Amino acid sequence: MKVILNKDLPTLGEEGDVKEVAKGYARNFLFPRSIALPYTERTIALFEARRGEIEARKTDKRKDAASIKERLEGLDLTITMPAGANGKLYGAVTNQTVSDELSKLGFQIERKRIELAGNTFKSVGKYKVLVRLYESAAAEVSLTVQGQVLKTETRTTASGKARRRRNVESEPAHNPQTGSAPETAPVANNPVEPQAGGSVPVEG
Questions:
Q1: pTM across the whole model
Q2: Total number of domains constituting the chain
């Protein structure tokens, strides 16, 4: 069925646009939220009367888009990601990654408006990111992906040394003359007990 949008809806269109949508979508979502109105003679007349203010708002949006485009293209965006020594990322840079980074700089841009060649970047390097703004306006943002090398090898070596040190400490000391570990002296099976009077008999 035909509807006229009463508000901007990024996934559908802008205020004043005429769209063809499913009846259920219109009745269950668009109409209850006043996002759209049925396409009738009455609503057509209503929007014709509002055309001037709608166009004025669109002009403001175009100006805002031009300003944002200029600011975005003046950026040199840098994202640091964990990576191997060969420059391959442990993970990937996505449009959500870029959206989050732009948000930190004060740009509230939906990830759907951000386009990456191949959808993701999986290696360090310099890239161009396309940001769709308003109507045909789009900004090309310079992006540098830096790698943060994880020091796994250093940790492995250190833990290996610690293990070797514990093993050495647990081994018995070797006798330098015989080359073998010293034996513990055997304990006598029948120890001599002192006799009455506190003296121990001595064989002579």
A1: 0.65
A2: 2
